[in-house]
Amino acid sequence: MVQPRRGSGTVVISGGTDGMGRGIALARLALGDTVVAIGSSEAKGAALAAEAGGLGAGERFRFVKADLSSIAEVQRVVDLIAREHAAVETLVLCANRQSPSRIQTPEGLEFTFGLYYLSRYLLGHGLRKQFDAAEHPVIINFAAAGLKVGSVNFDDLQAEKRYSVLRAQAQCGRANDLLGRAFALEPSSKARYVLYHPGFTATLGGIAHLKQPVKGIITVLSKIAAKPVDKAIAPMLELIDAPPADRLTAIDRGKPVDLSMKTFDPDNARRLADVTRQLVLKHYGPTHLVPDSDARDTRG
Fold first, then answer.
1. CB 132, CB 190: distance < 8 Å
2. How far is CA 171 from the centre of its chain?
3. Looking at the predicted structure, is the pLDDT value of residue 227 above 90?
4. What pTM value is reported for the model?
5. Number of helices and strands (H, E) in the chain?
6. Could you give the CA distance from residue 58 to residue 290 in angstroms, rounded to a whole number?
7. Between the CA of residue 182 and those of 19, 63, 152, 186, 270, what are the distances in Å?
8. Using one digit for the tens of pLDDT, what is the confidence trace for 64-115?
């Protein structure tokens, strides 16, 4: 672990108005951090701003409304953050939402891929200058590290041949495993990367579009078996204060994950990084959100 810190840094949270993202936002504001919460609901953003004001932290809170499934929107958000913050100590990646049917992003990519995986790739690389300006930066990616369900189907990344909400979520979970590995293999900044699976948590964010009986089952389980948000986020607050020294750390419900698992395969990680870069160029065009493959950071 690096030297612990408490507050006074800038924390950016995607999916920052619901569930664990919201909980982390309020906790870090209480500790003295500046928080930028990204979300898709103006009403939820206003509610969180009111809570920040109640903590006496209104001047240290910024809500940014955005559809992070869109590359153009991520570009806008990164540019806004870069204008307002020279350094970012922490990026927390929570944004995710299930879609019962296959829909496309404004750039023509599959929605779950765009939101759950691609926005995390773009934010992590797009804020690289802000990370390098911070003392001990860390990226915490809330996904499903340690699980073996699903795989990255390079022949059908956009789920054009077969789509189901569970298959799309599982594929993006494994894509985030490879994303973390790729960040460690070919870092674009000095930020440490943490893949974190919190387990079942008492938050219903993202299930509104699910069909019964799945929606009902999740609702019941959340009432009887899920951890409260404050307990679920406690380990993440510690990671923000004292990021791991290793380039990549994976944690599954409080326990370290073996990075030799097949889901973290280095060759697949490099392959996905290259495919992702080409998809962004094809569907959006050149952008500073994608690091130059000939000028990658190789610092330890």
1. yes
2. 15
3. no
4. 0.89
5. 10, 8
6. 33
7. 27, 30, 14, 6, 6
8. 999 999 999 999 999 999 999 999 999 999 999 989 999 999 999 999 999 9
Rounded Cα distance between 220 and 136, Å, is 40
Dump pLDDT digits (tens) for 18-62: 999 999 999 999 999 999 999 999 999 999 999 999 999 999 999
* Average pLDDT in the chain: 89
Strand 138-142 to strand 192-197: parallel, antiparallel, or no bridges (unpaired)? parallel
Q: Which residue has the tokens 């800038």?
A: 10
The two beta strands, 34-39 and 10-14, are parallel
Mean pLDDT across the stretch 284-293? 88
Closest CA to 63 of 29, 32, 86: 29
The residue with tokens 């330890």 is 300
User: DSSP readout, 218-274?
Assistant: HHHHHHHTPBPHHHHHHHHHHHHHS--SSSEEEEETTEE--TTSGGG-HHHHHHHHH
CA distance 47 to 126: 28
Mean of the pLDDT values across residues 221-226?
Answer: 47
33 and 134 in contact (C-beta within 8 Å)? no
- Cβ–Cβ under 8 Å, residues 20 and 94: yes
Give Cα 255 to chain centroid, integer Å. Answer: 20
What is the spatial distance between Cα 207 and Cα 204, in angstroms, rounded to a whole number? Answer: 6
SS3 assignment, position 61: strand
Q: What is the pLDDT, as a whole number, of residue 168?
A: 95
Confidence of residue 197 (pLDDT cuts 50, 70, 90): very high
